[in-house]
Every structure is written in structure tokens, then in C-alpha cells.
Amino acid sequence: MPVPSYLWAPPQPAAVAVQHSDALFPVHRLFFVGRNYLAHASEMGRPVDPRRDRPFYFTKSPSALLASGSSAPYPQATSNYQHEIELVVALGEGGAEVAPEEAHRLVYGYACGLDMTRRDLQMAAREQGKPWDTAKDCEHSAVLSPIAAMPGVVLERGRIELRVDGTTRQDSDLASMIWGVRELIADLSRLYHLRAGDLIYTGTPEGVGAVRAGQRIEGSIEGVGSIALELRNAV
Ligand code: MN
């Protein structure tokens, strides 16, 4: 096969670190669950009724990924940039129409994620029935810790917490997720042919809030790891 020539250097493949390994996890797609904790859905003014409602999703570009421990400039076009800490499921196998009781087979491991959000743009889009892309898929907005490999494991509980400059903002437990890891993988696999390298950010608990340039976000998920992000002045 001829070696292709490019007009300029193509982007590096998106990849994230794996704990206790030199090998990187190559990233395919980034999926996000919209509302997966009752108290967060209520604080957003859109309560969820688990008997009637189904999960919903949005995506970010792999180019929005940022490794934990980095600093990022405060983004453009917002004055309300908010933190959302989330359990992230990293898939090591693919599948479509996966049954919940088979969903653990797709799990490679877990990471801590930050779904950073331009909340002012999201609220404006929501009011007007417009897509969330510019609110959610902005540069450096998908922060990710190194992945903890635990193939086939389904996490069902564990403390999830986030601090800004040392002050606790979010403090909950994975047991409060409305739809668990099995249900989310099964449900998403009815919409997409899931593949190894897909990441699922499983939604944030209550306590989301704004951060400013100069502030430091730190968080952790019990049994998974920790995450940090520092915001610089806008460029
Ligand atoms: Mn989120």
C-alpha cells in the first residue's frame, strides 16, 4: 500500500495513561451521560423519574481530552465554566445490542473524569432547544485520570468527591447513579456499535459549580484514583 502524504502533520492519536503500565489506552470515542444522579438532575431544574425516563447522551471530540495533572486556559466565550466529576468506564471490547448481564465483558477499566462545561452556553442552548455542542465540546473539557485496569469488573459503589482550592464541592457515592454501569453499556450499545477505546463518562453528582482562572480542582473516586486540573488565565 502506498504511504499517504499529508499536507501537514496529522494529529497524534488520542490516548491516555494506564496505571502501573507503560502501554497507553488508545481512545476511540467520548460518550457522556446527561443526568445520572437524582440530586444533580434536580439542581439543574430537570428532575428525573427513573420509572419513566431513559438515559440520554452527548459526545465530545477526542481532541477535547486533557490528561489529569495538566493546566488549561480558562476557555473562551463563557463566564460560567463549571466542574462535573464523573466515573469514566473505559471499554476494552466492543459490542452492539449487549444485554446488561453481558455488559461487564466490555469493561477494560475505570478512570476519574471531569466533564468541564460552559454552563451559560448550555442553559442558553437548552432554553432555545438547540444542541449542547458548544457548551460541552470545548477545548480541554474532557479531563481524564490514568485508567485503573480492572477487566470485567462492574463498579457499583464508592465515594466520588471533588474539591476546589481544598473546599469540598461535590461529595456522593457511585451507588447513587440512577443507571449503573451495566445498564449504561447495554443502553448505549443499542445506539452505537461500541468499540474498544470508547470512553463513557457516566454523569456527575450534585454540587456542580463555577471555577475561575487560578483555581485548582482536585477529585477522587474510591477504588479508581484521583484527578487534578488547574485553570490558567485565558489566552
Ligand atoms: Mn456531565
Helix/strand layout:
Layout: E1 15-16, E2 25-26, E3 30-33, H1 38-43, E4 57-60, E5 65-67, E6 70-73, E7 81-83, E8 85-91, E9 107-115, E10 117-118, H2 119-127, H3 133-136, E11 142-144, E12 148-149, E13 159-164, E14 167-173, H4 181-188, E15 199-201, E16 209-210, E17 216-221, E18 225-232
Parallel strand pairs: 3-15, 5-11, 6-18
Antiparallel strand pairs: 1-2, 3-4, 7-10, 7-16, 8-9, 8-15, 9-11, 9-12, 13-14, 13-17, 17-18
The site of manganese (II) ion (MN) has 6 residues, from loops.
Structural description of this entry:
By secondary structure, the chain is mainly β. The protein has a single domain, classed as Fumarylacetoacetase-like, C-terminal domain (Fumarylacetoacetate hydrolase, domain 2). Helix content is 11%, strand content 33%. The chain has 4 helices and 18 strands. It has helices at 38-43, 119-127, 133-136, 181-188, and strands at 15-16, 25-26, 30-33, 57-60, 65-67, 70-73, 81-83, 85-91, 107-115, 117-118, 142-144, 148-149, 159-164, 167-173, 199-201, 209-210, 216-221, 225-232. The strands form 4 sheets. Strands 3, 4, 5, 8, 9, 11, 12 and 15 form an 8-stranded mixed beta sheet that branches. A hairpin with a 3-residue loop joins strand 17 (216-221) and strand 18 (225-232). The longest helix is centred in the middle third of the chain and has 9 residues, at 119-127. It starts with 14 loop residues before the first strand and ends with a strand. The structure holds manganese (II) ion. Manganese (II) ion is lined by residues 32, 84, 86, 115, 203-204. Manganese (II) ion (MN) binds next to loops.
